[in-house]
User: Fold this.
Amino acid sequence: MTEHAGKIRAAVKACGDSGLVIIARTDARAPLGLEEAILRGQAYINAGADVLFVEAPQSVAELQIIAAAFPHIPLVANIVEGGKTPPISPVELQNLGFKIVFFPLTALMAVTEVMNSCFRHLQEQGTTDNLSGLMNFQDFQELMNVPQYLAVEKEYKE
Assistant:
């Protein structure tokens, strides 16, 4: 805890008045308990961190305890479907006092499920014909800005 607080103090000094925001994170909740995570969070805020991220609260009650311990500090919540922190909406988190919410794996897990389904279909059917859920190729090209890239390519072609 002391070493990390020292690193935060160094970061605060290094950024000066640049406007850089320092987010302190503690992963102490899982191995050492909520009380230790809060103690570490307080040390990091005292060292000058602007925002606090206590990783893996395990209930709404724990989220409330964290928010109560840091009523004037912007707090981060990290929601991973199936993870330790309960699935709670951004509005509910905001009402508890959290200002930033990460959903770091949501899209990746959704895309992975779709990819699994696609490859399963390909393996079972031997083709992608009749594969549901595919984006139209033209829409995909538009989304990826392909026409703009082709125009730039054409502009600089010999």
The beta strands are 23-26, 51-54, 75-78, 98-102.
